[in-house]
Amino acid sequence: MIRFKLRERIADKEFKEGRRITLIEVAEVTGIGRITLSRMLNRGAVVRTDTLDKLCEYFGCRIDELVEFIPGGSET
C-alpha cells in the first residue's frame, strides 16, 4: 500500500514558516485540485506522477519524504 505523507509535509512547512498552511493554499500554489489533496490525506487515493512532482517542488522535498510504501497493505 502507498501512504502519502502530506500531513507531515504541511506540518513541517508550517513550522519552518511560522504560519498556518491550508489545503486551499497548497491547491492554489501547485495547481492541484483541493479534492485530490483531500483524497491524499485518506486511504486509496490515485495520484499522477506530475502531481507528486508539483508537491515535491512546493515542499522542497524528495519523493521518499512524500510517499511511503507499506508492505502487506497495512498501515502502522
Description:
- With 76 residues, the protein is mostly helical.
- It has a single domain, classed as 434 Repressor (Amino-terminal Domain) (Orthogonal Bundle), CATH 1.10.260.40.
- Helices cover 51% and strands 8% of the residues.
- The protein has helices spanning 6-17, 23-30, 34-41, 49-59, and strands at residues 2-4, 67-69.
- Strands 1-2 form a two-stranded antiparallel ribbon.
- The mean pLDDT is 91.
Blueprint (SSEs and pairs):
Elements lengths: L1 E3 L1 H12 L5 H8 L3 H8 L7 H11 L7 E3 L7
Antiparallel strand pairs: 1-2
Q: TL;DR?
A:
By secondary structure, this protein is mainly alpha-helical. The chain contains four helices and two strands, in the order βααααβ.
* Spans of at least 5 consecutive residues with low confidence: none
Cα distance, first to last residue?
A: 11 Å
Q: What order do the helices and strands follow? A: EHHHHE
For the biggest β-sheet, the strand order reads 1-2
Shape: globular
SS elements, strand count? 2
Number of domains: 1
Helix content: 40-55%
CATH topology: 434 Repressor (Amino-terminal Domain)
Main beta-sheet strand count, sense and barrel state: 2 strands, antiparallel
Provide the descriptors you would attach to this structure in a database record.
76 residues, mainly alpha, 8% strand
